[in-house]
Amino acid sequence: MSATRYNAPLLEGSLRFLADLDPEQREAVTHGEGPLLVVAGAGSGKTRVLTYRMAWLLATGRAQPHNLLAVTFTNKAAGEMAERVERLLGGPLARGFVGTFHRFALQLLRKYPEKVGLPPRFAIADEEEQRRLLEAVLKELGASPTQLSPRQARQAISRIKNGSAAASDPLLAAVFEGYQAKLREAQAVDFDDMLTLAVKLLSENPELRLAIRQRFTYLLVDEFQDTNPVQMELLWQLGGPSPNLTAVGDEDQSIYRFRGAELSHILRFEHTYPGARVLTLGNNYRSTKPILAAAAAVIAHNQLRRPKKLSARGGEGEPVRLFAAMDEAEEAAWVVQDLRRERAAGRSVAVLFRVNAASRAFEGELVRWGVPYRVVGALRFWDRAEVRDALAYLRLFTNPDDALAFRRVVNVPARGLGAATLDRLEQAAREWGCSLPEAARRLPASLTPRGREALRQFWGLFTELEALAAGDLGVFVLTLLERSGLADQYRGGDEEDRARLANLDQLVSAASEASGRGLSLPGFLDEVALASEADSAETGEAVLLSTLHAAKGLEFDVVYLVGLEEGLLPLTRGEELELADEEEERRLLYVGMTRAKKKLVLTYARMRRLFGESRASRPSRFLAELPREVVRDAAAQLGRDNFRAFAPSPKPAPAPSGGENGGFRPGLRVEHPTFGRGVVLQVQASGAQTRVVVFFDRAGRKTLLPQLAKLKVLEAASERP
DNA sequence: CTGCTTCACCTTTTT
DNA sequence: GGTGAAGCAG
Questions:
Q1: Catalytic: A586?
Q2: Is the predicted pLDDT of residue A687 greater than 70, yes or no?
């Protein structure tokens, strides 16, 4: 089938959509060729700009659908974006790609596995499998858990793979190597491998790279502030030095540093892509003035950002509300009473918290009052043990050499194939130089007669399933659940067992539904592996309970941001916080605050039970950053908690802009003899010395003494509050 | 080999 | 308070 063409009448008709945009948005949407960064503050319509830009590119004939490659952060965002573009155009986005970096990478790898040395049906190792492999590697290397825990190793390896760290430690290097070997042996890749291998694929195959560049002539990236170095490299492979790249992002909403995201990608965009255009969307259409003023005041304390102004187009509205609870129970009770009133008034409501564990108190309270709610970020459906067992069977069916899947389910339900049998199989696999499942198929002589028989039965199931492979996936999965005994495990049990059965039912429905969309079994498994929690965060009638992370991109009439306490937001593990970490915590708060359209409530508890035991807690340091005039009860509440005294003494306070600090103020473009050009982030007056924090295009962030550093002022920055 | 009990560790945040 | 590994009896 040929690509959809948008003919002239439709074209003219569709350009009318430009009238929906404000001048800033229109400027971004109608940008021609070359790299473009759209700095889009919270609620400034960035998704609108991205979708309208895609529509504009199509409607003006610059691109055909298959020329568009749009990358979003979640699958859900991708779905919404595609839908909105299609609605604007009244036509399908056939063969255009709209999805996550990972999905794009996986698609490439599925198409050309042999070019990067992968077996055609490689598996995707989930977190638990990663941990298992790492435990084994660490054990083999004789590393004590105090040296390097599997968890630390996983984090470190992930950072190395996504390019935000190097393997400098010898032990870590050895673990890395052992881990990769085991992954390959199991014919699996982990999440980070998808990206690194996609980069490898493109960088080592010039003809393929060229073909892809010729096909995808327009690149669009959402949430650009959360890209990590490998993703940047992938973009580079896809677009080269002067791509038609539209990057949309906001450094104030970067909340994935822990996952390797680097703020410098957005802050240094013009340097990475010389000649790039940078546009700013400065109108916030989401929140009322008090909400936005409060959020802006908080985020202004960050140094690693472009100073900018976001003006509220919304009305005055009610002040931000602050509530101090005795403990987490009172916090939940108060919030639920308040949100019941809001719901009665027909407003959408969310409760946001820093850590998943905080949702429990609210769930209890909501159940008590019969308020419908949805939890995002709790144990994901796809992560439930019974679902994973079933998926492992499916994986093994898809790839008979998937050792990780085999290991998971040979003995589920128990069929007498325990540790001893697995040891023998492993031994045999080593001797024969084949995969573990392959050894199990060859039934080595070392097996006991019972083990042999059990394995025969086990494989018999797969033979039986062959006959159904071509049919409906739902039927296939249902048969699998019955014949394997997975379902029987939970029959006639307690409430928990019934819940498990219900989950398995849901899996059957999901498979059936995927089948209806034309997905094959491998396609279904890939989709499941890439599914994220945020994907399921529908904003319906129910109250949404969500982590701050998972709430990014959503909006609600009323937002309750709870647990604003030292140690919880900012989250610390005992030790003090580095500046970069504190700033990320502040951004998290900012993201949460800017989800609110009409009403924002911030709460904290003086006593919180975390971990079984009760601990006295202090209000978050960020509360001291709220401008009192927009916060109701602030003086009373904070005064009662002697809050100012609690607030840790801040770093040298940001100097008032335009002050007497040698003529430097945030936002100024400057030049340095060694570091080159940059922008002033902050001016610190401490004693007689003035220090200037500058973010250099090439050299990154530096703190300088301008008296010594020969900093030259280039120009006044465009935005000035 | 299984299923039970006990014990340690844990907690960010997620594609 | 929850999970998962380890240890032990049948």
A1: no
A2: no
